[in-house]
Amino acid sequence: MIVRSRSPLRLGLAGGGTDLSPYCDKYGGCVLNATIDMYAHCTIEMEEDCEGVFFDAQDIGEQFHSSLTGELPLEGRLILHKAVYNRVIREYNHGQPLPIKVYTHCDAPPGSGLGSSSTMVVTMISAYQKLLNLPLGEYDIARLAYDIERVDCQLSGGKQDQYATTFGGFNFMEFYDENRVLVNPLRIRRSILNELETQLLLYFTGVSRSSAKIIDDQVKTTSGNTEKPLQAMHDVKQLAFEMKERLLHSDIDGMSKLFQDSWVAKKATSPAISTPLIEQIEDRAISAGATSLKISGAGGGGFMMLFVDPLKRIAVENALEDLEGTIHPFKFTQEGTQSWKV
């Protein structure tokens, strides 16, 4: 049997960081995000005469092979692949090993700021769900992915990515204590989506980064007694509400202005979010005609989103041409994770 799955990556439009514990546990968090047509992919082949378990992360050139011996130690390479496999056989296959080959790849590199790691976990769960006919709804898949990353693998991070890729589309998400999450889908007119796609430029800085250190720094600064980073996080949350209103009222210019306010507030939550390269990109883009920009994800590198007047887009692209980054065309998507049998 062969099954495949794909799950969309997301753009964090506003509120990123407020989905981190302990901030969201104490104050409540909210995030506005949207999925795009870049994906994490998974194929699972199950053969009864297969003598082991085989993982192949084709985009990063890493492989793992084991005999059918039950749960796999969470060490060495491909820890996320192992952790997903362990959870599946423990909770849904009576602890019995599965004779499978799992192939994965992602359209964006690790550390992209598009939620690629969480999206990969979700797309693997989605493939196992189809393979074993598991009774998992959207909230179940997202929560399982969160537990695998944050509990089983002890990886730092928030909650939005797992829910964004599982549900898909534009969503306003609320995060509370005891891991309570509410996903509110937003219905956006096609004309507004067209204008957003026309005005937004997605730029990869050329630098992948580990989000864990930045996230740990945000947690430290916003949970301590330092008032400025905590107030900045409150501002980030308030701007998410305002960004949602601008979006629903088709106020693209208002969204662009709030983008810049959100970027300023986000940088105030941790000194590691911006870098000299990011500041150089910002200076060049704004000078060439971009109206606002911000990092998607934790910061430090990865992808940046720029609001640009379509008549000045070429000028902005030319201003960034000699840097190491690249521009990535994209479209918004309405579907979340999908899986199917071949």
UniProtKB/TrEMBL annotation:
Signal peptide: none annotated. Residues 245-320 form the GHMP kinase C-terminal domain. InterPro entries: GHMP_Kinase-Related, GHMP_kinase_C_dom, GHMP_kinase_C_sf, GHMP_kinase_N_dom, HddA/FKP, Heptose_7-P_kinase, Ribosomal_Su5_D2-typ_SF. GO terms for biological process: GDP-L-fucose salvage. This is Dehydrogenase. Pfam families: GHMP_kinases_C (PF08544), GHMP_kinases_N (PF00288). One of its GO terms (molecular function) is fucokinase activity. PANTHER family: L-FUCOSE KINASE. The keyword Transferase applies. It comes from Photobacterium aphoticum.
